[in-house]
Amino acid sequence: MRLQLDPSACDGFGFCTGLLGELVAGDEWGFPIIKEASVPAELESYARQAAKACPRKALRLVRERA
Amino acid sequence: MQQADLWYLSRATGVVALVLLTATTFLGVLVAGRAKSKLPSFVRADAHRYISAVTVAFLAVHVITALLDPYVNVGWAAVVVPLTSSYERGGIAIGAVGADVLLAVGISSALRTRLPARVWRAVHWAAYLCWPTAIAHALAMGPDTRFAWARCLVAACALVVFGGVAWRVARTVNARSARPHTELEPRRSLLAAMSTGDANK
Amino acid sequence: MTIVDVRPTTMRLLSGLGGTGAADLTTHLATHGPLPVPSRPSPRWQEAVLDEVESSGLAGRGGAGFPTYRKMRAARQSGAKPVVLVNAMEGEPASGKDHYLLTFVPHLVLDGADLVALAVGASTIVICVPAERQALVARLQQALAERRSLPYKRPNCEVKALPGHYIGGEESALVSAVAGKASVPQFRPDKSVGLRLGRQPALVHNTETFAHLALIGRHGAQWFRQMGEPDAPGTSLVTISGAVRHPGILEVETGRPLEDIVAAARPVPNVQAVLVGGYGGTWVSADNLSVPFGRQGLKTVGAAMGAGVLFVLAGGSCGLLETERIARYLAGESAGQCGPCLFGLPALADDLELMVRGQPQPKDLQRLRARCGLVAGRGACGHPDGAVRLVNSALDVFQADVNYHMDYGPCPGSRLPATAPVPSLFHQARPVPSRFTRNMEPA
Fold first, then answer.
1. pTM for this structure?
2. Distance (Å, rounded) from C-alpha B173 to C-alpha B192?
3. Are the Cβ atoms of C337 and B200 closer than 8 angstroms?
4. Are strands C156-162 and C196-197 parallel, antiparallel or unpaired?
5. What is the domain count for chain A?
6. Is residue C268 part of a domain?
7. B199 closest CB neighbour out of C165, C336, C347
8. Which of A7, B91, C48, C307 could form a disulfide with B141 if both were Cys (CB 3.0 to 4.6 A apart)?
9. Digit-coded pLDDT (tens) for C239-266
10. What is the separation, in whole angstroms, between the first and last Cα of chain A?
């Protein structure tokens, strides 16, 4: 699974940076930087939580493209 | 169970629901306004959601005990349809409106991931109606309002909510005047993010 | 800007332009001959046209340089009748080629649009022009009226005036505007999925691309490849301005050395650098001007042909000042959708302002470089990437200026008025804020 961020929907709430700090960092304005888009298996449930928590549904989990 | 117990239970759970609703609204305002905090932002959002669920639970008990109470005659329909109660028509009506809105907000939030983001946001804005209707309902209904403690409680709740909303409005106004000068109007919801930025450091 | 008749290095699109005024349909047909289109295009003819465009190697002339045939094929194979959009928005302030083509040789562009529409089975052609250019709209309506006399069955053609801000020419923003929605770019995680206008696929090409297609339709792919480089063949229009005596539009063969092109515009003796591509492009220093103006050549100096903008900077000017002003303009043109762009670009402009007008420290330069790394690639479109590309290339090419500013404060060149054309007054360089003037007190 990969993390996908829609920057035009993101409003910088920062829930994802708190919930998935291993993969998502925050910039100086509070917006997420995806450090690593590919989600390792052990972090998958946390990634789902982070995507679910996003108030704008900007963070999404998509299938890894072949 | 004594006859009067349902009556007291209804009033008590009503008061608790009001306090919880105040807390929910206040937390909601903090989340939307991006209040700075040592804790990560999702903690506040989770607290908001959790307390709102507890609010709904207390509201349910409040409503059911009122309906089961033989002392007052409130029809089942009056819970959701305003102005159909024989007892205290106006007061119950206000409560019904508030309950309807809370129900809509609750259901839309439960289904949030399945709804388009814009739909959920539109319904959630209506949540601002919940607290005023709750207060109006309390003031119109309660025999408790003759007590000083009740009046103090209402005043305290009002202070918290008005304070929170005033803070949020001020934030937005500040952000708007401080926003980067752009040819196109930036998305309004991004203005809230302006207030958290440490830009120009 | 004056459109001058400097003898261009080559003439295809611009051939037949003599005298005054636009080429009307008769002149156009006399110069180029009729467009060989059957009265009822068959699928075999359509395939043949697409094959021809593929062999020609034509790449988009709007800035992205995407192979033209691929977009056309995708639109044709999509199932529904496509809509063809002629992108004449030309949001780049220093670019005038599209406006030029539509003003002087509109029928060349319209021929190309007809050809594409018939080849992909499109139902409609929409020519998208900025709303501010009312004269252009009138001119196009005139040209369209003339075309009623053409022998083949033309698709419906309409002119649409759209908001003319910088980002309005971005493909997805254009489609969005035509659909009646906000003229801002759409997030497209998978670019291979084409744009849509409702149920119909939207095929967007730059004005100049259509002009080239009109000639490929007449003379074929091999003819097109006779000029230019093998990997990016043909000719290309450039808009050259700045420290040159003859600014204007030139048609150049790809692969010509940049210095030849600049020379054709009669530059001042001491050229310091040239901004190549557009305001989101790259500065190329005077030492590197021998590089060929083509895909591979420009890549070696980190540049690309882009929208064909060439802005020449004279020796005495401060490259950082020009860059700061352009960066401030780009910041103001953000669509305002994405945080990193909306907040990052003004921060970059502020950092540059400090570099130009204040007493910058090495940590300020570090912060600027770090912010560049932070902002690029994090928007829904390429706007912030362009701004970062501009700033990074400026820090590279004008390194000497950066060092001077850090050691001595503002250089003499930075006190001169800047020259890059930046549209509204709103985007003029801000008056020096007090925290900087304090540092400019004599020691």
1. 0.90
2. 10
3. no
4. unpaired
5. 1
6. no
7. C347
8. B91
9. 999 999 989 899 999 999 999 999 999 9
10. 11
